[in-house]
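ok new one. same drill as before - structure tokens go in, u give me an amino acid for every spot. 315 of them this time. try not to just spam alanines like last time pls lmao
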């Protein structure tokens, strides 16, 4: 973007002095510069002339912002920022200073980055976490799931008002009714409050854990992250091909640590009773009802069940 020096270089020969004076007059007569002079009537002509480049940048970037083309196409020298002016008293003389300030779009972008940094996902489509969320749209998109949406909104309000409840939520329902979407919405809203969250797509996670057995440090770090995060979501639990070691030593360890400490959340096509049957059976040891009951004893008492109905959005 041209500076005032670049503008002046466009004029050559004997005309440069006149063009300089014309440009100076134009800048000093800009409404925003006039406003500055009215606010600080003690600003001298000499000080205004000395800071002509600052005033030029200020006016130019103000015009860009008034006709903002969006953050990605910001034409200002420092993308997402604009020049602001301050007037300071230095030894009895008023001096003009300039600095770069972030615009509202840049501030919103930084807030979104902070929110995203508090949420980690394992094998969940990142687009689900990056979508814009609108409560009205969520409520009106499918009236059949409105009761479930209201419960999610109540949970979010309770967490914002009184801190995280001791219980999590268990979202059960048919395929494609938006259970994962609602959990991502909850994560996004509570991340705005400074809470951390992890969402795990169970089928892929269970398969990956089997390969992590050879990398003990990675497995320990992953399990520790899930133990300590404020909100943990096991997405599509019941769809995984569970082995006894993963069930008892990984999932069981995580849930044992979190119960009575931090809430855990689930989405599933299974009811709690059907999930118990699923967790009681492994591809290695067959049916082990006691171990399924043992794990469910770390799930059922620590969740409120939310039935999510509606049309299959994937179909």
């Amino acid at each position: 973007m041209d500076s005032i020096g670049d503008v002046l270089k466009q004029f050559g020969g004997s005309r440069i002095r006149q063009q300089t004076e014309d440009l100076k007059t134009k800048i000093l007569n800009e409404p925003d510069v006039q406003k500055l002079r009215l606010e600080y009537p003690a600003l001298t002509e000499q000080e205004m002339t000395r800071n002509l480049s600052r005033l030029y940048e200020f006016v130019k970037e103000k015009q860009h912002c008034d006709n903002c083309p969006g953050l990605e196409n910001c034409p200002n020298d420092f993308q997402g920022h604009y020049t602001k002016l301050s007037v300071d008293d230095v030894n009895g003389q008023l001096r003009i200073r300039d600095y770069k300030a972030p615009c509202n779009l840049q501030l919103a972008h930084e807030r979104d980055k902070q929110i995203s940094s508090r949420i980690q996902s394992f094998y969940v489509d990142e687009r689900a976490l990056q979508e814009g969320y609108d409560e009205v749209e969520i409520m009106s998109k499918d009236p059949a799931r409105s009761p479930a949406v209201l419960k999610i909104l109540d949970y979010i309000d309770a967490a914002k008002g009184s801190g995280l409840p001791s219980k999590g939520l268990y979202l059960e329902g048919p395929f494609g009714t938006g259970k994962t979407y609602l959990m991502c919405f909850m994560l996004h809203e509570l991340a705005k409050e400074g809470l951390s969250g992890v969402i795990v797509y169970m089928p892929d996670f269970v398969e990956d854990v089997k390969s992590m057995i050879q990398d003990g440090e990675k497995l320990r770090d992953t399990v520790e992250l899930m133990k300590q995060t404020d909100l943990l979501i096991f997405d599509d639990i019941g769809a995984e091909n569970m082995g006894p070691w993963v069930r008892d030593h990984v999932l069981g360890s995580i849930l044992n640590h979190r119960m009575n400490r931090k809430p855990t959340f689930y989405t599933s096509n299974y009811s709690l009773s059907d999930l118990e049957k699923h967790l009681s059976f492994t591809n290695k040891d067959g049916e082990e009802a006691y171990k399924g009951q043992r794990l469910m004893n770390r799930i059922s008492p620590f969740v409120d069940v939310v039935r999510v109905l509606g049309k299959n959005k994937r179909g």
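The chain has a mean pLDDT of 88. and btw The two ends are 50 Å apart (CA to CA).
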